[in-house]
Design brief:
Number of strands: 12
Strand content: 5-15%
Number of helices: 8
Order of helices and strands: HHHHHHHHEEEEEEEEEEEE
Shape: flat
Radius of gyration: 43 Å
Low-confidence stretches: 287-331
């Protein structure tokens, strides 16, 4: 009975330790991810400090640093809490083990005393020979053997319990040391957080002193943003018009082919009718008194020529296709989906569906980049500065490779408002990559996810980075964050 209880206790203890280890492992991964982000932010901030001009990007980076450090501190708090719980449970286990060990020792001592008192061979023989029958004597021999084995089992259990107790004490000691080291890391992060906040206050003060200069910088960026938006709208309209022209040309060609086919069928039917008429004129005239029976037609029997035209009227005059008809071959499109002229081909439909299906899983256009300006209107705490963004401004070192996020076709690659930009079509969706120092693709080029489109350059504020955008066929900018995979 005791062995079962001890085994059950060990199983429950191991399961709780495994669950705790998994939670600790998840926290460690989260901490490592945040620490990596902080290292990237620190490096990026050092790069921005080389710029003699204080920019809003510096403030954005510091804010990201503060948020990341607060997340790291919260993660450390959760880790400390888990350690406290583990220490408490280990202390309870040690208390139970000690209590059970004391009970085992008391029982074992009693059995030893009993064995000592009955140690003479005379008492042993007397116990055996006092049996009433041979079977009773054999039972007494078995009892004495089991009694001796029980003492040996008790001794073995005591040894194992002491070993388990010592291991548990060692684990508890390690937990306490780990807790102390974790608290030291937490205190250091709190000090760094306070320094980051002081640094943020300094940058805010500097920005306040340069609000006129920065407002001009933001106005220049807004002017550039509007020019880029106009250029992108023009490209999207051009692509839609070209798709409509291609679709109309295809429709007209289908009608012309149908007209030619009907004309050929009518000519063949007329020739067959003439040949039959000529054959009828060369036959012998009927005798006098005989009557000629005219061929009759019924609803089920029509003239061959008319039948040829009627039977093929549906095939030679197909219904006029509309631009909103879904392309065939794509089974994942929903029935209530609004179709675009850019999806009038199977290829265009496939690109659109694949792009939509990868929402939340698209790769980032750059590696190790930090978002410094989000989508939409951005404000900066402590200042009156505000700016609008049609995408994500991602800070990366100048010259970093910029990659396409999905399969598609390059519809524009060149300069707009003194900035290199690449626009890629993915069915009815478009992705834009702005602030490139060089372009590695050309218009009408087919590209895959991961294809290098160019290298990152500098923006108006003189910092390295790119602007990544997503638009639909209505030229409406989309927030890229829900489309990209989580880092």
């Amino acid at each position: 009975m005791f062995k079962r209880i001890l085994s059950l206790f060990i199983v429950l203890l191991l399961s709780s330790l495994v669950a705790s280890a998994q939670n600790r492992e998840d926290l460690q991964k989260q901490k490592q991810s945040i620490e990596k982000e902080l290292a990237e932010l620190n490096q990026l901030y050092r790069e921005t400090q080389k710029n003699t001009k204080t920019s809003v990007k510096q403030l954005a980076i510091i804010k990201r640093k503060i948020n990341a450090r607060e997340s790291l501190i919260n993660s450390i708090n959760r880790e400390v809490k888990q350690l406290d719980e583990t220490i408490y449970l280990n202390e309870l286990d040690i208390y139970r083990l000690r209590k059970e060990l004391d009970t085992l020792k008391v029982k074992y001592a009693k059995s030893i005393v009993f064995a000592y008192k009955n140690r003479s061979s005379y008492a042993y023989l007397n116990f055996l020979f006092s049996a009433g029958s041979f079977n009773d004597a054999m039972k007494r021999v078995t009892y004495l053997k089991s009694y001796r084995q029980n003492r040996e089992t008790q001794a073995s259990t005591i040894v194992k319990s002491e070993q388990l107790l010592q291991e548990k004490i060692g684990v508890l000691s390690n937990n306490k040391k780990e807790r102390l080291s974790t608290l030291e890391v937490q205190n250091k992060q709190l000090v760094d957080l306070e320094e980051d906040r002081k640094e943020q206050d300094q940058v805010v003060a500097q920005l306040k002193g340069k609000e006129k200069e920065l407002n001009k910088q933001i106005r220049d960026k807004e002017s550039q943003r509007q020019k880029v938006a106009v250029a992108i709208n023009a490209v999207i309209r051009r692509e839609i018009e070209e798709a409509k022209r291609r679709d109309e040309a295809k429709r007209l060609k289908a009608l012309e082919d149908a007209r030619k086919l009907k004309a050929a069928q009518d000519a063949a039917a007329a020739a067959a009718a003439q040949e039959k008429k000529n054959a009828a004129g060369t036959t012998t005239k009927p005798a006098a008194g005989s009557t000629t029976t005219k061929p009759t037609t019924t609803a089920g029997n029509t003239v061959a020529a008319n039948g040829a035209g009627a039977d093929n009227s549906a095939s030679v005059n197909p219904p006029k296709p509309t631009l909103n008809d879904p392309a065939t071959g794509v089974s994942s499109a929903s029935k209530d989906r609004t179709y675009s002229p850019l999806e009038s081909t199977p290829e265009g439909m496939e690109l659109s569906i694949n792009f939509e299906n990868n929402r939340g899983r698209l790769p980032w256009p750059v590696s190790n980049g930090i978002v410094t300006v989000g989508f939409g209107t951005q404000s900066y705490a402590g200042t009156k500065l505000m700016q609008k963004s049609d995408g994500l401004e991602i800070a990366v070192p100048v010259g970093s490779p910029v990659r396409c996020v999905a399969d598609g076709e390059v519809v524009y690659a060149g300069e707009v408002a003194d900035e290199n930009i690449v626009l890629v079509k993915h069915g009815k969706y478009f992705t834009g990559y702005k602030n490139l120092s060089s372009v590695a693709v050309s218009r009408d080029q087919k590209v895959k996810a991961g294809t290098v489109l160019g290298k990152s350059g500098t923006s108006i504020d003189g910092e390295g980075g790119i602007l990544f955008m997503i638009m639909n066929d209505k030229s409406v900018a989309q927030n890229p964050t829900p489309w990209l995979r989580s880092k």
